[in-house]
Amino acid sequence: MVIAQTHPPNVLPDATVTHITPDEYRAKEEIAEECHEYRNGEIIVMPGGSPLHSRIAVDITTFLNVTLRDTTFETYNGDLRIWIPRFNCGTYGDVFVIEGEPEFNGDRQDEILNPRLIVEVLSPSTEAYDRGEKFRKYRSLTSFCEYLLVSQNEPYVEQYYNSDRENENRWQWQVCDRLEDAIVLQSLNNIELPMREIYRRIEF
Length: 204
Description:
6-stranded mixed β-sheet, 27% strand, single chain, alpha+beta, disordered N terminus
């Protein structure tokens, strides 16, 4: 089996990749030292994050976890895999939130089917994929209705929201780029995520 390691996750190498089953992938992932994405039979190594990337993701997770702790929402970090049935894909978001009970993929306790909000902290090697193919796959999940793309190079967050989940392609877009502002998370009963909480330990 050839595993793509030196290519961005949205670009496959020229070499032929041996296709494996989802169960074979899961067995490998349980003992792997790094995360891999499963794409309809192919395994793609997910690039490691930088300290800056990790710091931003942790601060977002911490803020959401504390803010939502007495609600019906629950926050998860990137350790738990998101399974996307339509595309036969298993992937990892940096942060995501579900409403109510988690919907697991069959008897799997490590694959979630019902993320409501997903946050991706952008990196040079993953930005194109996060904006394009990965977002397209996420949109096929009926629970998913809000997406944040967070820059780690400047105070800049793109927010996508779909108020009509009967139409997976009808998304509204807006930008927040001032530290004194806050992002209103419509999928989480309009709680506010301050930009200073996202970038609280970052100096630009």
